[in-house]
Design brief:
By secondary structure, the chain is mostly beta strands. It has two domains: about 5-15 and about 270-410, Immunoglobulin-like, CATH 2.60.40; about 25-270, Neuraminidase. It is about 5% helix and about 50% strand. It has one helix spanning about 5-15, and strands at about 25-30, 35-40, 45-50, 65-70, 75-80, 85-90, 95-100, 110-115, 120-125, 130-140, 140-150, 155-165, 170-175, 185-190, 195-205, 205, 210, 220, 225-230, 235-240, 245-255, 265-270, 275, 280-285, 290-295, 310-315, 320-325, 350-355, 365-370, 385-395, 400-410. The longest helix is centred in the first third of the chain and has 14 residues, at about 5-15.
Length: about 425
């Protein structure tokens, strides 16, 4: 019998034997004008974008607005400062939560930054009153739980927030918009005391392109690379914080290709899985079934201990197994005698399988769900795995069924 602990051990073993693959994560930001939700590859800065349906918010060209990626629902929270919504940035920006006024208190203030905390399912918010607000999330409803105020110099405003769940830190950005100072400031605090800064560092330019930054409008954190991303809307800069003297060591820059549509917030979108192969249900299995394999309970990100490998539309009350191995899917595949479709999970280095009963009632109501606990440990970052579900029916005629294969990579958000 396999447990979450034994499966986690298998993941650690694979991580130790495989070379890391490109993680596929992207920076994502809401833009000020159109608006778009745009993402850029962390390696070469290639961009893709979609526009939220209808009219979302008013154009903003200052500190207002924010973006946060929700690793449980795989959606992106966006705010123009006064309203908030959640879209699927991988699926043409369809709404997961439609636009509504941002809940607040009696103090008039605009949203200036958003960040999502996976373990507690909470949304962290910075506002123009220089506060950090924390909201519980229940479906699409946000309920304010706590808030604190940050002390900044006169004329400075909080403009972004990101969370480091490995180090239990909060990353905040601030800027002043009078034109006296280029760029802005990055502040580090504990998640237990988010308004008490432990460290502050200034950033004024992208060194590699000699681009002077305007006021910072957002930030993000990539826990896999231990990199802080900051943006002035037009140029996004990645850097590593030196804990010894609280300085930022720059590692790269990405230019927003939309020169007149700057980012008003920033976050990290995890790697996106891809599917290989066909599906089948044949012989003694219900031939009308269309088995499919998908990722459950959010993204394969470090710290997602509830992550699952799911399959649905399986023949009910039959025997299935989830096969997995390190590496990308075999594009051609290989036939296992008696099975109705090719298997695309690579055979080496370590082919593993986990059996289960499909359950369900009748017909194609069967399903499987395998917990694939991913600890908050950066050593698993970049681990690429291919998984696929196959099974046998005894009705009493023997039959087989096979799902598509999925290739996915452990990243962060």
């Amino acid at each position: 019998m396999f447990t979450a602990r034994s499966l986690a051990l298998a993941v650690t073993t694979l991580a130790g034997t495989l070379a890391a693959q490109p993680d596929g994560a992207r920076i994502v930001g809401l833009t000020a004008g159109t608006p778009f939700v745009q993402s850029q590859d962390l390696v070469n800065c290639n961009a893709r974008r979609c526009a939220p349906p209808g009219v979302f918010g008013q154009p903003v060209f200052d500190h207002r607005g924010g973006t946060a990626y929700d690793t449980r629902t795989r959606g992106t929270w966006i705010s123009d400062g006064t309203r908030i919504a959640k879209v699927d940035s991988r699926l043409q920006c369809v709404y997961q939560c439609g636009p509504v006024p941002m809940p607040s208190d009696q103090i008039a203030s605009d949203v200036t930054g958003l960040a999502y905390h996976h373990r507690t399912n909470r949304l962290w918010v910075t506002d123009s009153a220089n506060r950090v607000r924390i909201y519980d999330i229940s479906g699409c409803t946000l309920t304010l739980q706590s808030q604190c105020s940050v002390l900044l110099p006169l004329g400075h405003v909080l403009t972004g927030i990101a969370l480091d769940d490995v180090g239990s830190r909060v990353i905040l950005t601030s800027a002043e918009f009078s034109g006296l100072s280029a760029g802005g400031w990055v502040h580090i605090a504990s998640q237990n005391a988010p308004c008490d800064f432990q460290c502050t560092a200034q950033i004024q330019a992208c060194i590699t392109s000699s681009s002077i930054l305007g006021p910072l409008t957002g930030c993000a954190y990539d826990a896999c690379e231990s990199e802080i991303w900051v943006t002035d809307g037009r140029v996004s800069v990645s850097c590593v914080l030196s804990a010894l003297n609280c300085t930022l060591i720059q590692t790269g820059c990405c230019t927003n290709p939309l020169l007149n549509d700057p980012y008003v917030g920033l976050c990290i979108e995890p790697s996106t899985e891809y599917s290989t192969g066909g599906v089948c249900s044949a012989g003694g299995c219900d031939n009308s079934c269309q088995p499919h394999h998908f990722l459950g309970n959010g993204d394969p990100v470090i710290g997602n201990i509830g992550f699952t490998l799911d399959a649905a539309s399986l023949p009910a009350n039959q025997v299935a197994a989830t096969f997995f191995n390190g590496g990308i899917a075999d594009p051609v595949g290989y036939l296992v005698p008696g099975f109705c479709e090719e298997i695309h999970v690579p055979l080496t280095p370590t082919l593993l399988s986990f059996p289960a009963n499909t359950g369900g009632g009748v017909g194609c109501s069967g399903s499987t769900s395998l917990n694939f606990s991913i600890q908050a440990n950066p050593s698993t970052c970049g681990l690429t795995i291919t998984t696929q579900v196959m099974g046998i029916c005894f009705n009493p005629i023997i039959g087989t069924f096979v799902t598509n294969a999925l290739t996915w990579t452990v990243t962060s958000s």
